[in-house]
Amino acid sequence: MAAGNDTEVEIDFREAEEVQDLLGATRPDVIFHLAGTSSPAEMRRDPIAGHLNITKPAIALLDALLNSHRGTRLVLVSHCHVYGRPQRLPMAEDHPLAPTDTFGAARAAIEHIVKNYLPHGVDVVTARSFHHTGPGDREGWAGEWLRGAPPGNLDLRRDISDVRDIVAGYLLLAGSGRTGQAYNLCSGVATSLGDLHAMVRPAGSPEGVDSGTGARLPEIPILWGNPAKAEALGWVRRFPLDQTIRDLGAPS
User: How far is it, in rounded angstroms, from Cα 152 to Cα 217?
Assistant: First the structure.
């Protein structure tokens, strides 16, 4: 789906001709690219389809920009899973990309593909989002916890932000990010899933399951990012985690 100026258009972003036609009809100033499989668990169930659902839309979009729309800025939304197991903490943007799962590998592949387009004038800035949740995430991991689903390995630590702050980061990068650069969007704090689940779970819901059983997130012990590069552009997080959790549970 593509949306802009209060208009939604249904297209298949894996089809290059459809992407080219859409850009020709809309001539956008900025594109925020989030198309593709967003769930590591879904990637594990069907890794080939998941990989294609991430890489094909990005290539189709990059080709369309190269051919006809080099004046359009692309904010490419990547993910902290591109880093894999941390070699140093907190992870900054110069941390090696060494993904340990198909989801992270597909996102890292896009980042590498982008490098082929930059010398030809395609304007791309990359947002490496760490985990986030907030109002509207009723079907995601935090929403499932609210309904009493077990959270998996409670010893894992994750850098979790409010989705509203993450979206504000995307908007900031659209205007102020440097072409060809990647920016972490994260809280700069690693919270254990045990502590997070204690904040989220309804009374009487399961306290946890054995490590690796039913876990939604990869078994990397800690994913903890350094947001200093985005902060230097003026990014400010306005929603503390406890408010995020309260707002997540509020009726929409």
Answer: 8
Task: State how far the Cα of 30 lies from the Cα of 4, in Å rounded to an integer.
Answer: 10
Pairing of strands 123-129, 190-192: unpaired
Gap between the Cα atoms of 252 and 250, Å rounded: 6
CA dihedral 84, 89, 91, 96 (to 10 degrees): -50
Minimal CA–CA distance to 91: which of 159, 156, 39?
159
Domains and CATH numbers, the chain: 2-249 (3.40.50.720)
Place of tokens 């010893």: 155
Are the C-beta atoms of residues 200 and 170 closer than 8 Å to each other? Answer: no
Rounded Cα gap, residues 230 and 53, in angstroms: 28
Instruction: Give the Cα separation of 197 and 154 in Å (integer).
Output: 8
Residue 201: its pLDDT value, please?
A: 72
Distance CA 69, CA 91 (A): 34
Spatial CB neighbours of 197, under 8 Å, sequence gap ≥ 6 = 145, 151, 154, 207, 208
Residue indicated by tokens 């702050």? 165
116 pLDDT above the threshold of 90: yes
Half-sphere exposure of 80 (CA within 13 A, CB side): 30
Contact 128, 240 (CB under 8 A): no
> Could you tell me the two tokens for 97?
């990309």
Range in 82-96, 162-176, 236-250 with the lowest mean pLDDT: 236-250
pTM of the model: 0.90
